[in-house]
Amino acid sequence: TPSHDETVTGVSQEALRSKFLLPLFSSAPSTNQIPGEFLEWESEIGNIHCHGGFNYSSGNLMVPRKGIYRVFLQITYESVNACTEATKRLISEVFYITNSYNDNRRLLSSEDTVSCSLKPWRKSLYTSGLFVLEANSRLRVKSSHPELIVNKQYLVFFGAEFALSQ
């Protein structure tokens, strides 16, 4: 017998999952990040989801098939010590690499400036967009101040969600 959702929408839950929810990767940052390097993400514990062919390794999220994807990134920063400068510029970026050109291309970027006179301060940067991504391409994240990233998966996350075949 059909579920309540199938009766209302006429679409089975399995069809909805296969079209809209998969593949999906969502993750939280791991600890011990190095400034200027790509961020490492937790891929096995907590509210982490890796479905539909996504693979994650050493900071690289591998795209499983060609299509249109919603890519998203939120990084929350907070003060840990007094700043030496009057303001601090925070930048979070998602880079895209394909086998055809094997170079980091900026796909998404979000930035803001915080006043170091505010004590304590906390700032969340969020960005997302729809992009045509090639199969076996990679997504990776860079932050201007990884030492200020809050280590809570509900405040810091990165992922991609399949939207449409290309």
Automatic annotation (TrEMBL):
GO cellular component: extracellular space; membrane
Location of the THD domain: 1-164
InterPro entries: TNF_dom, Tumour_necrosis_fac-like_dom
Keyword Membrane: yes
GO molecular function annotations of the record: cytokine activity; tumor necrosis factor receptor binding
This protein's record includes keyword Coiled coil: no
Entry's localization field: Membrane
SMART domains found in the cross-reference section: TNF
One example of a Gene Ontology biological process annotation: immune response
Family note: Belongs to the tumor necrosis factor family.
Record's protein name: THD domain-containing protein
Organism of origin: Lates calcarifer (Barramundi)
